[in-house]
Specification:
Blueprint (H helix, E strand, L loop, with lengths): L2 H12 L9 E4 L2 E2 L12 E4 L9 E5 L5 E4 L5 E5 L11 E11 L5 E9 L4 E7 L8 E3 L26 E9 L4 E8 L4 E9 L5 E10 L2 E4 L2 E4 L5 E7 L4 E6 L3 E6 L4 E2 L5 E2 L13 E8 L5 E7 L4 E6 L5 E8 L13 E4 L10 E9 L4 E8 H8 L20 H9 L13
Parallel strand pairs: 1-25
Antiparallel strand pairs: 2-28, 3-4, 4-5, 5-6, 7-8, 8-9, 9-10, 11-12, 12-13, 13-14, 15-16, 17-18, 18-19, 19-20, 19-21, 22-23, 23-24, 24-25, 26-27, 27-28
Length: 423
């Protein structure tokens, strides 16, 4: 093993040799209205208004119920109904937001993108910062291109089998002025990258770029088959171009989107493979808190024990876990499917906001989303509170400290290489 891999292995081992904090219980201060069947809350994304932070929004997938838009008081602003389709159902599974997408005419818009698991397509909405009511407008092309027309073995993939677009994250390559969708394939150990394409009629479609298949790994000298083990929760570090992807039963992998190379194994495993792990399957929502000079935290939903694990963004060291407990009329968070965090000052949240899905909204019996002030998490866990460190509209490259540079240099040296579909 060469020097870079030795440094990488040592750094990853350190993540589990550092003493972990005791489980911290925090409380939400707001919750959105209950979502009853056929809706089912899943994945939220926080959108920052360009000029008036008080008008920022939380955009959320609610599966067979379509999507919802909420304000910072957790009030409902807009209902995005399920799409009318000729076969099967429309089911918005995950959602993410990005800033400054260039339309065909050269104008720029902020967008929200959702994975329609029922139809195996991506749904794109533009966000109007001047609209108080119904700020999202659908702008996908009339017949969106399917995401996964085949299975990993190359065989045809009928939509009816639901091996379809599932987890989703967006990546904005500022240097190239391109925007990408990263998506997982349901019931498969596969991720793929798609470019968002602006069309002459003002609509948007996607174009396949490449994929990665994680169908095996070696742990402790033993090869494990990962066939059928799907991914869902993902987040892209917008400053480094590294994708963090949670394989639900397995662990969290990293992929360098600049090179296409991936880790040889997850940097943290689930308890299925490592009894000391802070992650109990399913590994679900992933989100990043950005600090200065590349610092910050990766937060991961450990759905099996209703907690969230926190990792150092640079060293990947495990820093501790928290749960969102009950407070007054607001119940505890259980079985979280998705979460997002924004470290900027917002009205009512001067130190930042963490939003999570609650899989069991009691006593109503449905699902919803809980809002947690960042300082409620950071204070008892000894984490950074820095509401000026990161503006998602204006990204700057991260100055790479020596340790981080080595970690990124080791990424993918023994890992998965991206595949590009043959024409």
């Amino acid at each position: 093993m060469n020097l870079k891999l030795n440094i990488l292995a040592a750094a990853l081992a350190l993540a589990f040799t550092l003493p972990a904090q005791a489980l911290v219980t925090v409380q939400a201060d707001r919750e959105t209205p209950n979502i009853a069947s056929p809706g089912d809350a899943d994945d939220p994304a926080i959108w920052l208004h360009p000029t008036d932070a008080s008008r920022s929004l939380v955009i959320a997938a609610v599966k067979n119920g379509g999507a919802r838009v909420y304000d910072l008081a957790a009030g409902q602003v807009q209902v995005l109904s399920p799409f009318t389709v000729t076969s099967g159902t429309s089911r918005i599974n995950n959602v993410d937001v990005q800033y400054g997408f260039r339309l065909y005419d050269g104008s720029r818009v902020d967008i929200a993108v959702g994975s329609d698991r029922g139809q195996d397509v991506f749904r794109v909405w533009k966000i109007d910062p001047n609209a108080s009511l119904n700020p999202l407008t659908y702008i996908s092309t009339a017949n969106p291109t399917r995401a996964f027309v085949d299975k990993p073995d190359g065989s045809f993939n009928p939509v009816s089998q639901q091996n379809t677009a599932y987890g989703l994250a967006l990546y904005r390559d500022m240097q190239a002025d391109r925007m990408y969708v990263l998506a997982t394939q349901r019931s498969q150990p596969r991720l793929a990258q798609f470019e968002l394409v602006a069309l002459p009629d003002g609509s948007v479609d996607t174009q396949w770029v490449r994929d990665w298949i994680f169908d095996s790994m070696v742990v402790g000298g033993t090869t494990h088959s990962l066939a059928g083990k799907q991914f869902e929760g993902m987040v892209v570090d917008q400053q480094t171009g590294v994708l963090y992807a949670g394989q639900e039963d397995v662990g969290i992998w990293r992929i360098d989107l600049k090179t296409g190379l991936a880790d040889a194994a997850p940097f943290v495993l689930s308890t299925d493979y490592d009894a000391t792990s802070p992650l109990t399957q399913d590994i679900e929502g992933l989100t990043l808190y950005y600090g200065r000079n590349g610092s910050g935290y990766l937060l991961a939903s450990s759905q099996g024990d209703n907690t969230f694990a926190v990792f150092d963004r640079q060293s990947l060291a495990y820093l501790g876990s928290f749960e969102v407990g009950a407070q007054g009329a607001i119940d505890a968070v259980q079985h979280s499917d998705g979460a997002d965090v924004l470290g900027l000052a917002l009205p009512g949240y001067p130190f930042g906001l963490f939003v999570t899905q609650d899989g069991e909204n009691d006593p109503e019996g449905g699902t919803n989303f809980k809002y947690v002030p960042w300082q409620h998490i950071a204070g008892p866990m000894g984490l950074t509170v820095d509401n000026l460190a990161y503006d998602p509209r204006s990204l700057a490259p991260v100055p790479e400290p020596g340790t981080w540079a080595m970690l990124l240099a080791g990424l993918g040296l023994l890992g998965v290489v991206a595949r590009r579909r043959q024409a």
